[in-house]
Amino acid sequence: MAKKVAAADAPATFEALLVLLHARMEALSPSHKRIAERVMVDPESVAFMTVSDLAAAVEVNEATVVRFASGLGLKGFPGLVALCRERLREQAQLLRRFENLENLDGDLRASAVAMDQTNVARTFAQISDSTWESAVRALASAPRVHVMGQRKTFAPAYLLGYLLGMLREEVSVVTGSFGGLTDDIRHIREGDCFVAVSIHRYSMETVRSAQSARERGAHVITLTDNPSSPLAVSGHDVFYLEAASPSVLRSMTAFTVLVQALAASVAQQMGRSARESLLEEEGLLSSFETYYAADGE
């Protein structure tokens, strides 16, 4: 593991712990890195694990878990658990969203519209020109583009893959279906572009795939929800999206708007090439009679 943190400099909050782990990730041993990933992605479960439980979950021995915690300046494994429980108390996201839904006054539809307008505005206000231009350039010019999102974030990931696939060649949506995730990752080459989409609670497979893609020399773009996300450390271009909602379900509206805007910018940058791809697509759709046509059309 990296140099031990002095007790006086030990993280006092879970957010501080995340910052420390992100900063030291590259210096961690493989076994300590697996522990760090589990803590970052699933602190709710770690909060109620014993040393033995966590060791078994990440396939290390118990002494390694204790050394990991002590190396962060914490008071052994109990200190690590205490920070994870603090996170659990602070978040309680699902419970709070249920309470908001039950206690919501007025029109839920109007509240959802207003909140999503705010989500979109805040999301785009955080994006720098340099980040946007770098991401669009990579999506337009990389030899291959791989897009990954699981569970709730599969929808915007699929949409981005679909739109880019209409504009250019060599675009794939990574699903890892039928146990084939490692096969998908094996096809990533240096110079490719890998897009990872995930929000709290973060998909371990998406986090690890983004890390692997970066290690393999791909340009990594991440779409996530806050700077403490484990995806933040892997991205060359990182987009933080707002997902607040007045109900129990987190909103994906800002994600949808962002991927459509990215695809539109890619089309603009590719110019004639994108236009030719779209015309070819339309020709194939017509020849295969893909869409319903009313009589006389």
UniProtKB/TrEMBL annotation:
SIS domain: residues covered: 135-272
Domain HTH rpiR-type: 15-91
InterPro entries given in the database record: Homeodomain-like_sf (IPR009057), HTH_RpiR (IPR000281), RpiR-like (IPR047640), RpiR-like_SIS (IPR035472), SIS_dom (IPR001347), SIS_dom_sf (IPR046348), WH-like_DNA-bd_sf (IPR036388)
Keywords: DNA-binding, Transcription, Transcription regulation
Species assigned in the record: Gordonia phthalatica
GO biological process, one term: carbohydrate derivative metabolic process
PROSITE patterns: HTH_RPIR, SIS
A GO molecular function held by the record: DNA binding
CDD domains assigned: SIS_RpiR
Protein name: Transcriptional regulator
